[in-house]
Amino acid sequence: MSSPFLWGVASAAFQVEGALAEDGRAPSVWDTFAARPGAVLDGHSPAVACDHYHRWPQDVELLGRLGVNAYRFSLAWPRVVPQGSGAVNGAGLDFYDRLVDALLERGVTPFPTLFHWDLPQALEDAGGWTSRDTARAFADYAAAAADRLGDRVPRWITLNEPVVHMAYGHAFGIHAPGRTLEVPEVLRVAHHLLLAHGLAAAELRSRGLEALLTNNLTPVRSPEDPSGADLAAGAAYDALHNRLFADPVLLGSYPDLSAFGAAEVPGVREGDMEAIAGSADGIGVNYYNPSLVLAPEEGAGLPFSLGEITGVPTTAFGWPVVPEGLTETLVGLTERYGEALPPLYVTENGCSREDAVVGGRVADPERTAYLESHIAAVDAARERGADVRGYFVWTLTDNFEWAQGYHQRFGLVHVDHRTQVRTPKDSFARYRDIIAARTGAPESSG
């Protein structure tokens, strides 16, 4: 008997929990980065975020009202293993223990992510992802989490969007840890992230659990009348953004990165590719928009440049709203990787708006339309043969949106970050009714 389709929402520990120094949690790279002047827009502090660490029963109650049957959240590595390696913090795991039990009591499947960018600062001080030791430390952390929660949590995501963490955090310096490394070292980071996934997957599988990898994916678009240079730029961008963290897992080899001056990926040792290849029991797809890729501008330093997609609505982030791009992504994966591709889950998809509470209500028709159109895009992909088994909206509550602070609101629930008052938006009610119609649950007017 097949498992039911997963209808859920997604979140991340650093973006919602707060309590950054409670119950033995040590600093992460994001604590350090957010404290830098100018690193986060308007100096917004993540210290409280959504106060989920204290208000989780209220948030679980919201999940129950929403009617989801799955909740994707992340464990904070520095809360579970404060120094990144070594002693495990039982008090930190107690928090996730309580959360998992509460979710199961509500009939909500826990779908945890082990790494959503909050590397313990102690590991960063020892080299971070440029060090091979970090991959081994991650596997040990995965084992500790699985030993505590694996009896109730059969399916785990190892890494969230490693391409974004690699590029924004280690090449461009606009996310934690704020590094601007040269290409060879950036690719070394990529390899260690993949190795970490492979080693952690082995730990999870040895305990009878599933290991998934979540990537941020984008369909690559060319201008209407592309030149050969435009097409070459598109291929280079596709290799970096879409294939770098997929090909090694699904095909056992790295894509052609010669456009970046890399004849090979640094740091690969004997046995590494065997540990990485075939190590995913599912692929998570985080989709927000396609990318228009053009030939590089003179002196750009990269083999591509990015253009603006016009003629479509945009979110508050300025991202183009192109739901058919999600169909293209899911079907494209299916066609590219064939039998090597495990089941797919849309692990993030959502829309930022400048929401406000007016008369006790948050009207967000653009987000409602966004969800309807992207769910239809998933349906279209499944009709075309994509084995999609879940859809998760980003996100439940308005949260700390990384370098944007509290300026970008993605939540189905509005959060007043001064009072922590939560107000479900109109999109919350619409998603609830979509789920109810799909699952046969009774719709609610509450």
UniProtKB/TrEMBL annotation:
It comes from the Bacteria. One of its GO terms (biological process) is cellulose catabolic process. Its EC number is 3.2.1.21. Substrate binds at Q15, H116, N160, Y288, W394, E401, W402. GO terms for cellular component: cytosol. The active site is at E161, E348. Signal peptide: none annotated. SUPFAM superfamilies: (Trans)glycosidases (SSF51445). InterPro entries: GH (IPR017853), GH_1_N_CS (IPR033132), Glyco_hydro_1 (IPR001360), Glyco_hydro_1_beta-glucosidase (IPR017736). GO terms for molecular function: beta-glucosidase activity. It is an enzyme of class 3 (hydrolase). Keywords: Carbohydrate metabolism, Cellulose degradation, Glycosidase, Hydrolase, Polysaccharide degradation. NCBIfam families: BGL (TIGR03356). Belongs to the glycosyl hydrolase 1 family. This is Beta-glucosidase.
